[in-house]
Amino acid sequence: MAPVARGCVRWLSAVAAAAVLWACAPEKPVFHGTDLTGVEWGRELRLRDPEGRLRTIADFRGRVVLLFFGFVQCPDVCPSALARALEVRRLLGAEGERVQVVFVTVDPARDTPELLREYVRAFDPGFVALRGDEEETRAAAREFKVFYEKVPTGSSYTINHSALTYAFDTAGRLRLAHRHTQTAAEVAADVRVLLASSEKKGTER
User: Fold this and answer.
1) Alpha helix locations (H) across 25-133?
2) In the predicted model, what is the mean pLDDT of the chain?
3) What pairs with residue 167 in β-bridges?
4) CA 90 to CA 202: how far, in whole Å?
5) Is residue 193 scored above 70 in pLDDT?
6) Helix ranges, 25-131 (H)
7) In whole angstroms, how far apart are CA 2 and each of 6, 11, 14?
8) Which residues lie closer than 8 Å to 70 by C-beta, 6 or more apart?
9) Are strands 99-105 and 148-153 parallel, antiparallel or unpaired?
10) Neighbours of 115 (CB within 10 A)
């Protein structure tokens, strides 16, 4: 019976050790948006702002970035997405200053730098608009799995496109995708988690 007893002790010790490790493991945050942590895409963004400066996600380190692809003549989805982002910043109070909203146009032919500057400033002077040429726009869309296509409307066209808002943490890593139907309160709650996580890591250094 002694070997069996020693085996039981070893097994119980292993179980106890596993339980301790499980209890000490950091709890995975629960988000309202789709968790994209660790995906192999959405890492590169190199486009120019209306002043002609090349911008990347790394430029906004220290802030949570909310990234949306759209176009100025978009009748409803784009303005409501930017209005929601503005409400998110309001709901966060002082922490809203740590949120950077970035709007990328999928219509560079019509969305000139001047037009983009005025468009985003109409929502908030702190919002940043980015654009590239047609090839650069397609590359950015591929990197973020964004769909868009021109749809003829009489003598002009509109654009059908994906309507997700991507959230990056303060280290510049893609973390979340929020659907257009999600509320400002839900997005703000997720942003709070990302901000709190960065503060916790800062105190642990």
Assistant:
1) 77-91, 113-121
2) 89
3) 66, 176
4) 25
5) yes
6) 77-91, 113-121
7) 6, 14, 18
8) 77, 78, 81, 103, 104, 105, 106, 161, 163
9) unpaired
10) 17
